[in-house]
Specification:
alpha+beta; 494 residues; 9 helices; 32 strands; five-stranded mixed beta sheet
C-alpha cells in the first residue's frame, strides 16, 4: 500500500446479488442459455481412483465429486476457471512453487472437461506449518534483487531448519509487485527458492489499472496465479483466500470491499465445513485495524479496511477464525469473539528503504505452526534468528523519551507478559503507550527521509512500552513471554 488519499465521500456501492444455488447460472444467462453456458465436467483422481467429496467450483457455484470422483457443473461464460478446494491428506501440486489447483475454461467448447490428479501424503497432515509473505512489493530490479538475495534465502533457511518431512506451504498475501507486472517473474523466482507450494492473494498493486471496472482488474494476476478467490484444506484446517481489493475504475483508486459474488461463493464453500472448524482466511486489506483509534479519525480509511466486514464476520460466526492480512506494512493483532486478525509487517519493510517497517517491526514475515485445530505463530525478522522478537532503546534515542527505556514488542498481543529489570532487580511491567518507534523516526522523518520514497512516514503503534530505570542503573534487561510461553530478552548497558 502507498499512502495516498483514498476515495473521499464515496457512497455505498451496489452489487448484483447472486444467489448461492445451483440454478444460478441459468438465471444469469436468461433465455439464451444454450449459447451462453458451458458444461464443466471431469474427475478428481488419487492413486488411480476417483476421490469423493472434493469441492469443485467455477467461482460462482460449488459442487462435490460423487463416489467415483466425478463432477458436472453448468457454468456461464463470466467464469474463467474451474478449480478444486484441495482436500486434506494430499500433497499440494505445484510448478516452481505456484500451486496448481485450477484449469482455465475454454468457452469455445460446449462441454469442457477438466480432470485433476492428486497424490496421497504418506501420513497425517494434522501437523503442518505455513508462512505468510505480506507485501514483497517490488517495483524495480533493485527491489527484486533484495527479495532474491535477502528474503528468499531467509525463507529457504527457515524451512530447512525444521525437521525433515515437515509439511510447509506459503501464502503470498498481496502486493507481490508494485504495479510492474514484468516483475511477477522475479517474485516467482524468489518463492521457488523455498521449494514449497505457495498460494497467492491479490493486492492493490497487483491489479490491472487500465481495467474498466473491478471485474477486469485481476486479469493479469489470474493469468499468472489462477483465481483470485478460492479455498483449500490441510489437516483439520480449512483455508480461504479472498480478493478484498475493489477497484473503482480510476487509476490506483480502490476500497476494501467484498462483492456479492465472493460472499455468495463463500457461503456455499462453508456449507461443506463443520461448525467449530478452524478456518484461516487470507486477504490483502485488513478487515479491521486500530488505526482509526490511534489517529483519532472519525471514519474508516476506505482503502485501509474492509468496509462490509460485518457481512464476512456473519458468515464466519460458526467457526474458530484467524484472518491473515497485509497492506499496512505494520504488525498488529486483535481478537473479538471467534475471530483473531493478524495484520503482518511487510517483507519489504518500509518499501525497501531500510531494515524496518514504519512501526519499527523488522522486515519479515509470519510463521505458523499447526497441530490439529490449534495454531501457534511468531514473526520472523529477515536475516535474524527467530528469537529476535523485541528491541529496547536507550533513553534519549528519540526526543520524546529522554529519560525512559522504550521497548518495541512487534508481535505483541494481550496474552504477552513483559517484565523489566535494573541491575537484576525487578521493576515490574512497563507502561504501554501509543507512540512512534524511535528508529522509524530516525529513518523516516525530517531530513533523514528515504530518497526517492520520501512519502514514507513513521506510524503510530500500540506495541511500544516505556519504563524509567532508577538513577545509576548500569544494566537493563527486558524479559517477554508470548502466549505460547516462549521467552525472549533484550539487554541494554546504560
Amino acid at each position: 500500500m502507498i499512502r495516498r488519499d483514498f476515495i473521499k465521500g464515496l457512497g455505498v456501492l451496489g452489487a448484483v446479488a447472486i444467489a448461492p444455488v445451483v440454478t444460478q447460472a441459468q438465471r444469469l444467462v436468461g433465455a439464451n442459455r444454450d449459447l451462453n453456458t458451458t458444461q464443466l465436467k471431469g474427475r478428481v483422481l488419487a492413486n488411480g481412483k476417483g476421490l469423493a467429496g472434493v469441492a469443485i467450483t467455477d467461482g460462482i457455484n460449488v459442487v462435490q465429486t460423487n463416489a467415483r470422483g466425478e463432477y458436472t457443473l453448468l457454468s456461464n461464460k463470466t467464469a474463467s476457471y474451474v478449480y478444486m478446494s484441495l482436500p486434506a491428506g494430499y500433497a499440494f501440486p505445484h510448478e516452481q512453487s505456484i500451486t496448481q489447483f485450477y484449469r482455465a475454461i475454454d468457452h469455445r467448447q460446449k462441454t469442457f472437461t477438466a480432470d485433476f490428479t492428486l497424490q496421497a501424503l504418506p501420513g497425517s497432515d494434522d501437523k503442518h506449518a505455513f508462512v505468510l509473505w505480506a507485501d514483497p512489493q517490488i517495483q524495480s530490479k533493485d527491489d527484486a534483487q533484495k527479495l532474491l538475495t535477502q528474503s528468499a534465502p531467509d525463507l529457504k533457511a527457515l524451512v530447512s531448519g525444521y525437521p525433515a518431512g515437515t509439511l510447509f506451504h506459503g501464502i503470498g498475501c498481496g502486493d507481490l509487485v508494485w504495479d510492474k507486472f514484468e516483475l511477477f517473474a522475479d517474485y516467482k523466482q524468489a518463492i521457488a527458492q523455498s521449494g514449497i507450494p505457495f498460494f497467492q492473494v491479490i493486492g492493490n498493486h497487483d491489479m490491472d489499472l487500465e481495467a474498466r471496472t473491478d471485474e477486469g482488474s485481476s486479469k493479469t494476476f489470474e493469468k499468472n496465479f489462477g483465481p483470485s478467490y478460492y479455498s483449500y484444506n490441510r489437516g483439520k484446517i480449512h483455508y480461504v483466500v479472498l480478493d478484498d481489493v475493489f477497484f473503482v475504475g480510476v487509476d490506483k483508486k480502490y476500497i476494501g470491499y467484498l462483492d456479492e459474488r465472493q460472499l455468495a461463493w463463500l457461503e456455499q464453500d462453508l456449507q461443506n465445513i463443520k461448525a467449530g472448524t478452524t478456518v484461516v482466511v487470507s486477504l490483502h486489506i485488513p478487515t479491521n485495524t486500530g488505526k482509526r483509534r490511534r489517529y483519532k479519525e472519525d471514519a474508516d480509511d476506505m482503502g485501509g479496511v474492509v468496509l462490509n466486514r460485518e457481512r464476512l464476520y456473519t458468515l464466519l460466526k460458526p467457526y474458530n477464525v484467524h484472518i491473515l492480512s497485509g497492506h499496512a506494512h505494520v504488525n498488529e493483532k486483535w481478537t473479538e469473539n471467534n475471530i483473531t486478525e493478524h495484520n503482518h509487517g511487510a517483507v519489504c519493510g518500509a518499501w525497501w528503504t531500510g531494515p524496518i517497517c514504519s512501526d519499527g517491526t523488522p522486515s519479515g514475515y509470519g510463521v505458523y505452526e499447526v497441530d490439529g485445530n490449534d495454531l501457534k505463530w511468531y514473526y520472523k525478522a529477515t536475516g535474524r534468528p527467530k528469537e529476535h522478537q523485541l528491541r529496547a532503546y536507550v533513553p534519549g534515542r528519540h526526543r520524546v523519551f529522554h529519560d525512559e527505556v522504550c521497548i518495541n514488542v512487534w508481535n505483541w498481543d494481550k496474552a504477552w507478559k513483559i517484565e523489566c529489570f535494573a541491575d537484576g532487580k525487578s521493576l515490574g511491567s512497563p507502561e504501554q503507550r501509543t507512540e512512534l518507534d524511535p528508529w522509524s523516526v530516525e529513518l523516516h522523518e525530517g531530513a533523514t527521509k528515504p530518497v526517492p520514497r520520501s512519502w514514507v512516514d513513521p506510524s503510530l503503534t500500540d506495541h511500544l512500552f516505556f519504563i524509567k530505570p532508577p538513577a545509576g542503573t548500569k544494566n537493563f534487561e527486558v524479559v517477554c513471554s508470548d502466549r505460547f510461553n516462549n521467552r525472549y530478552t533484550d539487554t541494554l548497558t546504560l
